[in-house]
Amino acid sequence: MSASGEAIVRLEAVARTYPGSVAALRGVDLTVARGELMAIVGPSGSGKSTMLNLMGTLDKATSGRAVIDGFDVASLRDGALSALRARRIGFVFQHFHLSPGVSALDNVADGLLYTGMSLRDRRAAAEAALVAVGLGHRLGHKPHQLSGGEKQRTAIARAVARQPLLLLADEPTGALDSRSGETVMQLLLSLHEAGTAVVVITHDRALASRFDRQVSMLDGRIVADERSVST
Amino acid sequence: MSVALRPARLNPLDVVRLAAYGLRARPLRVVLSAIGISIGIAAMVAVVGISTSSRAQLNHLLAALGTNLLTAEPGTSFFGEAATLPDASVAMVGHIPEVSAVSAVGQLADVNVYRNREIPEAQTGGMAVYAARLDLIETISAELAYGTWLNAATATYPTVVLGARAAARLGIGANTIGTQIWLGGQWFTVIGILAPASLAPELDYAALIGWPAAKAYLDFEGDITTLYLRTDPNAVEAVRDILAQTANPADPNEVDISRPSDALAAEAAADVAFTGLLLGLGAVALLIGGIGVANTMVISVLERRAEIGLRRSQGATRGHIRIQFFGEALLLSALGGGTGMALGAAVTAAYAALQGWPAVVPPWVLAGGTLATLAIGGIAGLYPAIRAARLAPTEALAA
Ligand SMILES: Nc1ncnc2c1ncn2[C@@H]1O[C@H](COP(=O)(O)OP(=O)(O)O)[C@@H](O)[C@H]1O
Ligand SMILES: [Mg+2]
Fold this sequence. Notes:
Shape of chain A: globular
Distance between the termini of chain B: 35 Å
Bound molecules: adenosine-5'-diphosphate, magnesium ion
Largest sheet of chain A: 6 strands, mixed
Distance between the termini of chain A: 33 Å
Number of strands of chain B: 11
Number of domains of chain A: 1
Low-confidence stretches of chain A: none
CATH topology of chain A: Rossmann fold
Radius of gyration of chain B: 34 Å
Oligomer: heterodimer
Helix content of chain B: 40-55%
């Protein structure tokens, strides 16, 4: 196991260039501590999603080093990377990505399919996670029967049901009205108490200011890395 | 750091659930693309089932009728004249130890049969008139459909038993037994109608009258045109070898000998050739069905990029994605194959019931159908599954 003292994410001079020489990241150094709350802000196209995907091991750096939970991503094969994601990383997307026609409970339980848990355990963990996000009364509802905020909370339940060390959310409130966005953001902030590092991309500076740490990006670089004075 | 990060194995039940989940989301498409395979498999099962049932029926028939019936006909003489066998040939053949029964008919040349005397003479209807020995019916295992067979008394009177087709042509049925028909310029009373005679189909078109009656009323001279004999089942070939010599010692080369059951057996064999053709057509349908499944799966992979990306983000390996889509193709194909086999068996059962045959679907066909179904699903699913697995997670999520 990785040393628990080590950072959950360590990016060292990471660059990512897409085919056609689009440089999405141009040398990023960033460390995310365990249990840390971090917001990433920056204009569209500044490389926020690219960096989040690298943290989540969905993508590999063109150069530099990405170390996640002590594992050097470049050295891992598909199976090991997938295992890393299955048990340690949770993703939340702007557009929820819920399966239509499948109940909230099964959407969440299905998200645990690749953890090696039995169907029973997956269902139990899913129910617990849905209760934790305040959707204990919506277990049997299909996505089309849920409001936007409830859909995103279901997606968050799906991400956290595996009890990840790292939760990555790419503009999770982008498709929501401000009220449901607020509920979702509060939920993400509360995960901190569970010891999960939470990294959230957001356009909303006001929302970002509620995180312990704000990283600003521009043109593939980190241009500011501020910490709120903790109260 | 040398900690092993091992991806979880999906248990088979989860793979089936995944495959079913994928199909359940698009039921119409599933039905449409399974139909091709379904039709192909149904066609093959039905074709094999029907031909097997028909062969079972023929074998049944052969077992019931026996394969030990031989016929001897005088053939034509060297000069092309229709020859006859001597009256004594019945007795001579009967003396062969392996021969258990002998009977004979003699065709009355130039004698025709009509429904009544108003019918023009040229309209013979292709029916022939025979003098028949009383033991004919047992020897050829024929059965009466209606009425009675000739007996020692009726054989001396102008009475007639009609073959199945002859009766139909003359318009005589169960209710008109006892009517008179115009035969060789005399009225003959119909006393019976034969069921179709599988071993002597020529008699289906015949009007059969008693041997003495033929002599008394129609100037029949007793010349035999066909000998029917039953042999010891183990000595059919041996009897065949000496039959010509025995039946017509004067001109053995003129005698034509045949074994009517051979024709039935040949029918079963001819069926096989026909079956081959239909099976080929079934295979084509199956191939098209396979292409349909592959097509459906390719489209499915394209449409479900976001789902693939999501699953990858949740820890699915390339292998997990591959097995999901591969399993889906197999399940799709299996649905088609399963309904196809049920359909083929139902068609076989219905057709056999209609024909009065025993319904037989050989197990090897079902095994073959299952194998073909899985092979087609596997081949059709391979490429889409590999494509799905190759998708980069970020690209899939961006879709
Ligand atoms: N798959 C890709 N292929 C090529 N270019 C890409 C791809 N993904 C992102 N980019 C480019 O990389 C840059 C950074 O993109 P992204 O990380 O999505 O920015 P953000 O999330 O901050 O809006 C953009 O210029 C974008 O056009
Ligand atoms: Mg983005």
